[in-house]
Specification:
The chain is an alpha/beta fold. The chain has ten helices and ten strands. It has a five-stranded parallel sheet with strand order 7-6-8-9-10, sandwiched between helices. A three-stranded parallel sheet has the order 1-2-5. Strands 3-4 form a two-stranded antiparallel ribbon. The protein starts with a helix and ends with a helix.
């Protein structure tokens, strides 16, 4: 909305004001498609979203059929832009973020080349497309580099107690733990790991952005994650941050906000 407000203040696109219709897909593919159908009835010409991987893929299935331009700021699974069963590229669907395989490979590279680790453990949410995509790419790169995965533990969506999994991981004595999940779970996992005396570093993907609200700085010391947003890194980023905090404060200033701003910018540049 920040980008659209700025754009409209400058005259919009070709002299036309951009009107935004907002829908909540509740993180669900069925709701995402229902929202899209409602938007189509109101005559939308482009779609930004969804946020999470599963609803983004569901949305991409229907936008591809009609050629509706779609861009997601944060859905990282390969299947958002490529139909995985056939390898067919969705020529109407784009993203303003990394892919899962890219992140998994980069974090394995970082663990081996920068940190010098050769023994990993994994704790991953089962049935989550995002977590699975990062995990498979990470393990494949580990095998290539010579990193041994000494333990791999899963958990179900909604779980709050990770002590059993972390106890098993501690017994395997890894040098680090790859935790390719979303920030709320990651924060709880790190807190419980530290309480168990598991002090090794954690590595993760961009789903970690926001984890500082769920674990302390002391607990997160030595953790690393892959992010598409580096605060204060360029003049353009600083200008975005200044405008964003003036409008919305600092609570939601994170990678997802920055990528959403970029996604809106890319889509509007294409429409112009």
């Amino acid at each position: 909305m920040l980008y659209f407000d700025q754009l409209n203040a400058k005259g919009g696109i070709n002299g036309k004001q951009v009107r935004v219709l907002e829908y909540d897909d509740k993180g669900d593919g069925v709701d995402a498609v229902s929202a899209y159908n409602l938007a189509c009835e109101k005559g939308v010409t482009a779609v930004i979203g969804a946020v999470m991987t599963a609803p983004s893929i569901a949305l991409a299935d229907v936008t591809y059929e009609t050629g509706m331009p779609q861009i997601t700021a944060s859905a990282t699974a390969t299947g958002v832009t490529v139909i995985e069963d056939t390898g067919e590229v969705r020529t109407n669907v784009f993203r303003a973020c990394f892919t899962d395989p890219f992140q998994g490979v980069k974090m394995a590279d970082y663990a081996y080349e920068k940190l010098g680790y050769t023994k990993a453990a994994v704790i991953v949410q089962t049935g989550n497309d995002y977590a699975a995509g990062l995990n498979e790419a990470f393990k494949a790169k580990c095998a290539e580099l010579g990193i041994t995965v000494v333990a791999e533990e899963g958990y179900a969506k909604g779980d709050k107690d990770f002590n059993a999994q972390l106890t098993n991981i501690k017994a395997a004595d890894p040098e680090f733990i790859f935790c390719p999940n979303y920030y709320e779970d990651d924060g709880m996992i790190v807190k419980q790991a530290r309480a168990l005396g598991l002090t090794v570093p954690f590595l993760g993907g961009d789903g970690w952005d926001g984890v500082v609200k769920y674990a302390s700085a002391e607990e997160l010391e030595g953790t690393f994650y892959c992010s598409a947003y580096a605060p204060g890194s360029t003049d353009a980023v600083k200008a975005f941050e200044e405008a964003y905090t003036a409008a919305y404060g600092t609570d939601t200033l994170n990678m997802f906000a920055a990528n959403a701003y970029d996604a809106a910018m890319v889509m509007c540049a294409a429409l112009a």
